[in-house]
Structure formats: structure tokens, C-alpha cells
Amino acid sequence: MLHFWEEQGGHQVYGEGTKTSCFPTVEVGCPSESRALRPIAIYPVSGTVEVVFQYLKRRPPFGDEPLRRALMERFNTVDGTDLAEAKLDLRPSFPLEVFAGHGEDIRAVLEWFVHETALAEARRPFDAGSVQAAF
Predict the structure, then answer these.
(1) Separation CA 100–CA 6 (nearest Å)
(2) Which of 44, 123, 129, 112 is nearest to 77 (CA)?
């Protein structure tokens, strides 16, 4: 799954706390204004995967509630997940076994996440002055 994430242009960030953690992350924006987005946090020791809506709600394009809701709905199509509507602004989780056992379904959700992020980035207005300076 993590190799698939890299094929989508992402990378992994690993936690430094007492719990082992991995955050599949994708960088968006131009190099001088790059920002990181991550859809999930993986905790192998506790056996959970969190969908980090709490983190995403402060980051475009997922600051838009309908887009977070669409992400939740896509995760909920995966057998074994049941992310509650009431947790759309929190960090609901599902078992790591679901992540490992339903690779194709999870990949489809993560691919959608990357696609929506890239689409929103392509639609962002750019500063004409920065384009002028590049020439």
C-alpha cells in the first residue's frame, strides 16, 4: 500500500513519539509555497488507521466540508469501516486489518484523495507576478 502511495507522488512521514506511526503524505503547491496533506495516520502497534479529518479541515481543499464528507463516504464503502458522521471533524479510526485486507478498495480511496488534491491545486489562481518573474 505504501509503495502504491509513492507511485501516486506521495511519501511517508514517520512519527517521533512513543507510538510507532506513519503518515502517508503528499506535497502540494509550488516549491516555494509547498504544503503537506495526509489523509490517514497508521498506528501499527495499536492496530488502527485514523482518518485525520481534524487535520484536513484546516487545509485546502479539504477545508470544504462536502469534500471531507465525500472522503468519509468513500472510506465507508470499504468493508470493515464505519466512520460515524458525527466524527467528520475528528479522527475516526478503523482496524489496521481492514487497511491490509482490502488493499484495492483502500487504494481507490487514496487515489481519489490524490486526484482531488491535484484537481484543486490546478484550479487555484496563481499570482501573475510570480509567473512574470520566472521569465
Answers:
(1) 17
(2) 112
Model confidence, pTM: 0.86
Task: Give the start-to-end residue ranges of the domains of the chain.
Answer: 2-124
Cell of residue 113, nine digits: 484523495
Q: How many residues does the chain have?
A: 135
Rounded (5°) CA angle 25-103-88: 55
CB 74 within 8 A of CB 116: no
Where does residue 41 rank: exposed (0-12), middle (13-18), buried (19+ CB within 10 A)?
A: buried
Q: Where are the beta strands (DSSP E) in 65-135?
A: 93-95
pLDDT of res. 74: 98
Which residue type is seen at 18?
T
pLDDT tier, 99 (very low <50, low <70, confident <90, very high otherwise): very high
